[in-house]
Specification:
The complex is a heterodimer of chains A (629) and B (594). Chain A is an alpha/beta fold and 629 residues long. Helix content of chain A is 63%, strand content 10%. Chain A contains 23 helices and 12 strands. In chain B, β9 and β10 form a beta hairpin. The chains are: A alpha/beta (629), B alpha/beta (594).
Chain lengths: 629, 594
């Protein structure tokens, strides 16, 4: 027999603080990007199509200015087009169309402009839609996988991490990844035209192109500096803003306490301080942003000056045509814009990296309940005997929660567990549903070691009613049947009648079809408890485990619940963590736990007579007035 | 809409000089910007005329660029500064007025609603000032200067490119509307998704206990897909706009290409002017594209302004109007005469002619069903809800005549909801007076049976509680709020059912401590437990706002009313015959509540 409380040595010690820590991956993490792309793999054809489309669109985008400068100005208006300048065959096409349609060349140019414009616009649209479609689907899959993973993490995980934190991983963090992937798409859409335009410019005048390119490092440096400054500033703005909101939210939530403590002025001062801090950072980032924002346009305008100054001398010596000078001014935007966009995207990139880390941390979190390699198949009907043999258990290695617990519950017996807070009552019933790992040969169901039963099989046979009832979205009937086809409406109604729930359910406007929200706001505490009873009764488990709610419910509802409980435990092995005298008195035996040990076990009367811990607890909680008078 | 925005004048007027100077500077900036295409045109024209000396043109462009940079930087900053400062002032006002609101206000408004106003509505107004002004000014100036220069170059061509403008404006507006709807959809679906995950994970133990994981994953797929669909739709509208907008603007370019080119070909227009038209068209079309957004900004800010003023214009529910003749120290004699109270928008009286006189040093227990008026009674004594004049007197003076701060510090209420701030325990215990001595803190903690709990924490009194710190159990929270009340050593202590999550043993211990320490002070406590009430000097039972029983434990037992019945039930549990009656009342009361 295993009597040691030493947990499985293979069980890795987990640092849950890590999970809640603020990860801020400030580096471009290629590994992470690679993993992320795994989820896009199923959509490879769409991504390839999208890439082809962006190449076509970018080329078309470059053709538009060429029609105005090279075709219209140089060829049609001035008749001095340079045959060496790459015009993508547009001049030849214009001539051919002029001849075959018999239109004036200008009209042909207008026609070409219109056609290319429309084709460009809708090729671009098609490119964006294929890309977005693939990315959205990929991330939907990622979210699905993440959720499925989280849904199957064990209780030990949820004991330690905040649900809010996990939630933001499924929502905000995945959203940040979308920004990342869309950002990469945007960059492609900017840089492809950049290179096409660059090629044309180099072919026209390499020297002027190089002069203009000299501005790029300057723009890049300033953009880099700007982004670095604002990254810090934006973070400070966000932080102060969130503490501002947090302060207000908390103040409102505790306003009654604020008012009875006369703290309004003091709290307003504290709020003002944060508000001032926020304004300080907001103003600073506004200052930096305005200085930078106007700089970009100015650089482009300055470049126009340079082109005219340099172009004039080239045109004078017939090195360049007038149309080519105009073309340069039109390409300026395509040359500078990608750098600006790159700057915009870096912040998103950094934030998305941190989000990616958080998501993969959650997906990689492999904590799980140990399942048997060859699970024992349970018989159709269990007898319902539960045996604990020298059960030792601890959540943390140092603090034992249950010590040498040995007892047997016979089939159909009703056992009440009582004990002070922290005595290990809840742990005992949690182990019975195998929500935590424990060593072999300590708990037996019909003489089968619990660890040899798959947790799903086990939980179908052990009906657990916890203190906080979880209502699932759906109708009342859905909440009773929980998707089990064998629980028909008739079965559900019968169960509800047995536990006194039928009356309130049928008084609802839609009866059993009344939709419930997850928190069950439309039900009272008492109603929710009765509904939970109906649910467990309909499932008809061989073992019932119940943690009695302590919430104050008025005495009349209390009576209904007691009566329902009597029906529920009828002929069923039941383990009840009891808080009410009534429940205890109706149990066959009472087990008293204290500091993880069984201190007493017997009937209510026996234990009262023994004058031990139970009798003390009983005295305090359920004093009989005539005795103390 | 304008009237709603006009309500903001008080917040904007102090910064009018800055705002106007910014708007004027924008005009200058636009003028300098419009000079660049003009000078470009002049330069190109010169080249076509065979004059290649363009030094003055280049100098002009450089000058215009520098001037524009300086002016536009000033203008943008000035306007954004005004927006940010107004947002700052609005936040201050909102915070201050919210702090003066009471139970009545919060029964009609949720905290979430207030937070939306504080966050989203203020941001909308800030955006209207910071960006809406800029956009509007740009729209006006760009159109003004762009068309002025074009008219100067060629009036007829200028008229020719006008027709597409209204279409651009209309389409932009239409798209903005669609995008607005789509982004609300995306936000809604995202919060559905968040809520789904949050609710689901909160109930994860039940889900796993009921082996519902797979069903839940299936259900999640649905929510997940809906979000993806909304997201795709938003992307589609955005992308379509990116395709249509330049195509509509291209109609202008084609007009210039055709008509302008024709004029150039026949020598009626210099090439430079032809090129300049293309540049000006961009300058003019852009504002029409964002015009839809401007309308949207104004509309949303108008709604936001109304929502903010709805709160900021409210009078404080409870006003502090001390008469000056009240004693500086309360001895604890509370006299309640004909006290009635009706919650706003409710038909029934929650308190109905209550008469009660509490002697200094007396302990009164108040019992009764949920909704019997117990909490309302206590709240009225400290004026969290205002009684009518003369209904509640302390030491023969109307509670309305006491300074609020004095009343609430000498009559200490421990509320039903054990609320703790996300701060260290020490700050929570000394919430009313952060400068309290350490001894006083430990004394209060001791009386509330919290000392051992605190000593178990490694950081003791500095332990951070709440979401970001240690999560306390319900009982620990209640004992902490109790300590926060006890630390004041108030002559009157009001305990509003603040032991419900404390186990009976601990409660007994705390109450006997209190009895010893506060032997000469007044205490009123609300409870559901007979074991708690039995120790009081007097017990009153409330039902539907009236006192139905009053007396000592023994007297009430002997009289055989509600209290005696409650005692029996809590002692013995229910008997079969009670059940039928309970069933009836249960479905009855639940229906009323629903």
């Amino acid at each position: 027999m295993n009597t040691s409380a030493v947990p499985d040595p293979e069980k890795p010690k987990r640092d849950y603080a890590m999970f809640d820590a603020d990860l801020s991956g400030a580096v471009l993490n290629m590994h992470l990007l690679g993993r992320l792309l795994q989820w896009l793999k199923p959509y490879t054809p769409a991504l390839i199509l999208s890439s082809v489309l962006v190449l076509i669109a970018s080329t078309l985008q470059v053709l538009l200015p060429i029609i105005i400068s090279l075709v219209a100005i140089d060829h049609i208006l001035r008749g001095e087009a340079d045959p060496d300048t790459p015009d993508f065959g547009l001049i030849e096409l214009t001539n051919w169309l002029t001849d075959s349609l018999g239109w004036p060349p200008l009209l042909v140019a207008c026609l070409l402009y219109g056609i290319i414009q429309i084709t460009w616009a809708f090729t671009g649209h098609a490119h964006r839609m294929t890309l977005i479609g693939a990315v959205i689907n990929g991330l939907r899959d990622l979210r699905h996988d993440l959720f499925s993973h989280l849904e199957t993490r064990p209780s030990s995980f949820y004991d330690r991490v905040a649900v809010g934190r996990i939630m933001t991983r499924v929502t905000n963090d995945v959203e940040a990844l979308y920004e990342l992937l869309r950002g990469l798409g945007t960059l492609i859409g900017e840089f492809v035209p950049f290179f096409v335009a660059l090629g044309v410019m180099l072919a026209i005048d390499a020297q002027l192109t190089v002069i203009l390119l000299l501005a790029l490092p300057l723009l890049a440096a300033i953009t880099y500096y700007f982004r670095r400054t604002t990254r810090t500033l934006f973070r400070q703005v966000r932080q102060t803003l969130s503490s501002l909101n947090q302060n207000m939210q908390e103040n409102l939530a505790g306003l009654q306490v604020v008012q009875i403590s006369d703290r309004q002025d003091y709290n307003l001062d504290r709020y003002t301080k944060i508000n001032e801090e926020n304004r300080h950072y907001e103003l600073r980032s506004a200052r930096v942003e305005t200085l930078y924002g106007a700089f970009n346009d100015s650089l482009a305008h300055t470049a126009i000056g340079v082109i005219i100054w340099y172009g004039a001398s080239q045109v004078a010596t017939a090195e360049m045509t007038l149309g080519e000078v105009v073309l340069f001014t039109q390409f300026i935007g395509m040359l500078f814009h990608p750098v600006v966009v790159l700057g915009e995207q870096t912040n998103i990139l950094f934030r998305a990296m941190a989000s990616g880390e958080r998501i993969f941390q959650a997906i990689d979190w492999d904590e799980a309940i140990h399942e048997p390699t060859a699970p024992v198949a349970l018989p159709r009907r269990l007898r319902g005997e539960v045996r604990f043999e020298s059960l030792n258990f601890s959540y943390d290695e140092d603090i034992p929660v249950l010590k040498d617990v040995t007892f047997t519950i016979s089939p159909g017996e009703k056992l009440a567990i009582v004990g002070p807070t922290g005595s290990g009552k809840s742990t005992l019933i949690r182990l019975l549903g195998r929500f935590y790992d424990f060593s072999d040969n300590q708990i037996f169901l019909d003489s089968i070691d619990l660890n040899h039963i798959h947790s799903h099989d086990l939980r179908r046979r052990v009906g657990v009613v916890l203190q906080d009832f979880h209502i699932f979205s759906g109708t009342i009937y859905d909440n009773i049947s929980l998707g089990n086809k064998s629980i028909t409406l008739d079965v559900a109604v019968r169960a509800a009648k047995t536990v006194n729930a039928h009356q309130f359910i049928s008084s609802l406007p839609k009866g059993y079809d009344t939709p419930l929200t997850e928190r069950g706001q439309n039900l009272s505490q008492g109603q929710r408890q009765l509904l939970a009873f109906a649910r467990v009764l309909a499932a008809d488990p061989e073992i019932l485990v119940l943690d009695e709610a302590t919430a104050s419910i008025d005495t009349e509802t209390e009576l209904l619940i007691q009566e329902a409980l009597r029906q529920l435990t009828q002929g069923r092995t039941s383990i009840l963590i009891a808080h009410r005298l009534q429940t205890i008195q109706e149990a066959d035996r009472v087990l008293v736990l204290d500091h993880g040990k069984i201190v007493e076990l017997g009937t209510h009367e026996e234990l009262l007579a023994a004058e031990g811990l139970y009798s003390t607890l009983h005295q305090l909680q359920f004093q009989d007035s005539s005795v103390s008078e | 809409m304008l009237r709603s925005l006009w309500r903001l004048r008080g917040f904007i007027l102090p910064y009018r000089v800055k705002l106007i100077s910014g708007i004027v500077a924008f005009g200058l900036a636009r003028f300098f910007e419009a000079l660049v295409p003009f000078l470009t045109a002049v330069g190109i024209n010169r080249m076509t005329d065979g004059n290649f000396d363009v030094a003055d043109i280049v100098g002009g462009i450089t000058g215009a660029v520098i001037c524009r940079y300086i002016v536009v930087t000033y203008a943008r900053f000035a306007v954004r500064q005004v927006g940010l400062t107004v947002a700052f002032d609005l936040r201050q006002s909102l915070y201050a007025s919210l702090q003066d609101q009471g139970a009545q206000f919060f029964s009609e408004h949720t905290i979430g609603d207030m937070m939306t106003r504080a966050v989203a509505d203020i941001t909308l107004i800030q955006r209207l000032i910071s960006f809406g002004t800029i956009l509007l000014v740009i729209l006006v100036y760009a159109t003004l200067f762009g068309f002025a220069f074009m008219l100067y170059f060629d009036p007829f061509l200028t008229l020719l490119i006008l027709p597409p403008m209204p279409i651009v404006f209309w389409y932009a507006r239409h798209s903005w509307r669609q995008m607005g709807i789509a982004s609300v959809q995306v936000q809604d679906r995202l919060s559905d998704l968040g809520a789904h995950v949050q609710e689901n994970l909160s109930g994860i133990r039940t889900i796993q206990a009921m082996v519902q994981e797979e069903n839940e994953i299936k259900r999640f797929s649905l929510t997940n897909q809906q979000y993806a669909d909304a997201f795709y739709e938003q992307g589609r509208i955005n992308s379509a706009m990116s395709a249509w907008m330049p195509s509509l603007a291209a109609v202008c370019s084609i007009t210039i290409l055709g008509y302008g080119g024709y004029q150039v070909l026949h020598g009626h227009m210099p090439v430079g002017n032809f090129v300049a038209f293309f540049l000006y068209v961009n300058m003019v079309v852009q504002p029409f594209r964002v015009a839809g957004m401007i309308v949207n900004l104004f509309q949303r800010a108008a709604v936001a302004s109304n929502r903010l003023h709805e709160v900021m214009d409210l009078e404080p529910e409870i006003t502090d109007q001390p008469s000056g003749s009240t004693p500086p120290f309360i001895s604890g004699d509370i006299s309640i005469k004909g006290l009635s109270y009706r919650y706003p928008k409710s038909e029934t009286l929650v308190l109905d002619h209550i008469d009660l006189h509490v002697q200094p040093g007396e302990t009164i227990a108040i019992m009764g069903r949920v909704g019997a008026g117990k909490s309302t009674l206590l709240k009225q004594i400290v004026r969290l809800l205002n009684p009518e004049p003369g209904q509640i007197k302390i030491d023969q003076h109307d509670v309305l005549d006491y300074p609020l701060a004095q009343l609430r510090s000498q009559v200490a209420l421990v509320p039903q909801d054990p609320f703790l701030f996300g701060e260290p325990l020490r700050d929570n215990l000394t919430y009313d007076d952060p400068n309290r001595a350490l001894d006083a803190i430990w004394d209060a903690a001791m009386s509330a049976d919290l000392k051992n709990t605190i000593e178990e924490f490694p950081e003791q009194l500095e332990t951070l509680v709440g979401e970001r710190g240690v999560t306390l159990s319900g009982g620990q929270k209640q004992r902490a709020t109790l300590a926060r009340g006890l630390i004041r050593h108030a002559p009157v202590l009001l305990l509003d059912d603040c032991f419900s999550a404390v186990d009976t043993e601990t409660e007994e211990h705390i109450l006997s401590e209190l009895k010893r320490l506060r032997a000469r002070d007044t205490t009123m406590l609300v409870s559901h437990r007979v074991s708690t009430a039995r120790h009081a000097d007097r017990i009153i039972v409330l039902e539907e706002g009236s006192i139905i029983e009053e007396g000592t434990h023994q007297q009430l037992l002997n009289s055989g009313g509600y209290y005696a019945e409650l005692e029996r039930v809590q002692r013995e549990g229910a008997e079969e015959e009670d059940l039928a009656g309970a069933r009836h009342t249960f479905s009855h009361t639940e229906k009323e509540r629903g």
